[in-house]
Design goal:
The protein has about 200 residues and is mainly beta. It has a single domain, classed as Porin (Beta Barrel), CATH 2.40.160.20. It is about 10% helix and about 65% strand. It has an eight-stranded antiparallel beta barrel with strand order 1-3-4-6-7-8-9-10. A hairpin with a 2-residue loop joins strand 6 and strand 7. The termini are far apart.
Length: about 200
């Protein structure tokens, strides 16, 4: 049993966002000589866009993702502690063997721990996630909502005192989903590796 390869457009999106993250990190390394901690404290809002390399019980479910996020940072010299919530739409899915498997939206609530190099911040993040899936074949369709976990890392570059760009990588792991009632796979274990870039505005 074989499945189609990851779409080329999704791979290009992942490479582009990974390149953005690498650029931000390289600027951070160059900024490490500065003696200023920068100012990252406050509430911010933003949007993000990227690619999701996904799988479900061996089937390739890769696609695109886009959404918005809202967060708040507290700052203690160079240490950044924050909380962020996000929601995204995704085109992740798989068509094959007379059936369609689709992931609709996903959201998360994550803690963030970062370190500031003046206008560059690097951070780790982790928390809880939730998503909805739909499976459809000739017999009918069924939807499921599942909770999971998310872990990742990223970097932000402050373009001004209020505007910053970011690049990040996130790994989502959701609980098993059963579609056996309508002839689908008995147990589907969805995972997503998301590569995305974003833009923030800090109030």
């Amino acid at each position: 049993m074989s499945y189609p390869a990851m779409p080329r457009r999704t791979l290009c999106s992942g490479v582009a966002v990974a390149a953005l993250a690498g650029l931000v990190l390289s600027v951070g390394a160059a900024s490490a000589q500065t003696s200023r901690p920068g100012n990252w404290q406050g509430v911010y809002i933003g949007g993000h866009l990227g690619g999701a390399i996904g799988s479900a019980s061996g089937a390739n479910t890769s696609g695109f993702t886009a959404g918005a996020h809202l967060g708040v940072n507290g700052q203690f010299d160079r240490l950044i502690v924050g909380v962020e919530a996000d929601v995204s739409a995704t085109s992740n899915g798989h068509n094959g063997f007379g059936a369609k498997f689709r992931q609709g939206t996903n959201g998360s609530m994550r803690g963030r721990l970062g370190y500031s190099f003046d206008r560059v911040m690097v951070y780790g993040t982790g928390g809880f996630a939730v998503t909805n899936y739909e499976y459809r074949n000739r017999i009918g369709q069924i939807s499921r909502m599942r909770a999971g976990t998310v872990l990742g890392a990223g970097a932000e570059l402050a373009l001004t005192d209020n505007v910053a760009v970011r690049g990040e990588v996130l790994h989502y792991n959701y609980s098993k989903t059963s579609f056996a009632g309508i002839g689908g796979p008995a147990n589907v274990s969805p995972t997503n590796n998301v590569f995305r870039g974003g833009l923030n505005y800090k109030f």
